[in-house]
Amino acid sequence: MTGIWLPLVATALAAALTWWCCIRPMAKNRACHATRAGVDDPELQEELRHAREEVRRLREQATPPAAPSKGPEILDR
Description:
With 77 residues, this protein is mainly alpha-helical.
């Protein structure tokens, strides 16, 4: 019975630390990722726009045009 106390205490400590450092700040909207860094930076916004456009073009190149089918798709392997 004594050997189970250490894992139980460690689990409770990990849960309390997770709540204190992660869940509590997120609930109060004070988490580190809640800031809006770079919103006012026009250079960053331009770079993001170019990156999104490149991703859109790459997805168009990778995806073949959809052809209407007359029935269910059959995959032969």
